[in-house]
């Protein structure tokens, strides 16, 4: 059975999902793969890891210039207490991004990756 969302419903559902991801991280002291995929997608990151010692998410973003012989990665640290807000501000509204979010929601709700339909 498919679930239908408009853009604002999808955003609210994603905010709830991020809240769940962060709560799970607090309890298990690790990020779920879906949470890492979401952060990597939204921030265009090369990598995402949870740092237990600092209770923070580390996000590696490439900042290389064309003439750099090796990739230059800048690491941003997001304290877990600020993660919901920072991830919320990183949401994008183009069609491809909305489809990606819908797939994450579908997986989480047990609907299947293609069972969430985004209506404009």
How is this structure best described in words?
There is one protein chain. This protein has one domain. The chain starts with a strand and ends with a strand. The relative contact order is 0.22. It has 120 residues and is α+β, with helices and mostly antiparallel strands. The longest helix has 22 residues, at 7-28. α1 (7-28) runs antiparallel to α3. 48% of the residues lie in helices and 22% in strands. It has a three-stranded antiparallel β-sheet. The chain has a two-stranded parallel ribbon with strand order 1-5. It has helices spanning 7-28, 33-43, 80-89, 95-108; strands at residues 3-6, 47-51, 56-62, 73-79, 116-119.
Topology:
Layout: E1 3-6, H1 7-28, H2 33-43, E2 47-51, E3 56-62, E4 73-79, H3 80-89, H4 95-108, E5 116-119
Parallel strand pairs: 1-5
Antiparallel strand pairs: 2-3, 3-4
């Amino acid at each position: 059975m498919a679930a239908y969302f408009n853009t604002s419903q999808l955003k609210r559902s994603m905010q709830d999902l991020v809240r769940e991801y962060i709560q799970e991280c607090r309890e298990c002291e690790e990020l779920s793969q879906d949470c890492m995929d979401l952060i990597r997608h939204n921030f265009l990151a090369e990598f995402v890891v949870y740092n237990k010692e600092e209770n923070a998410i580390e996000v590696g973003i490439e900042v290389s210039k064309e003439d750099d012989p090796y990739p230059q990665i800048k690491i941003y640290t997001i304290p877990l207490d600020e993660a919901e807000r920072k991830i919320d501000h990183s949401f994008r509204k183009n069609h491809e991004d909305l489809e990606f979010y819908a797939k994450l929601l579908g997986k989480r709700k047990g609907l299947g990756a293609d069972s969430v339909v985004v209506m404009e």
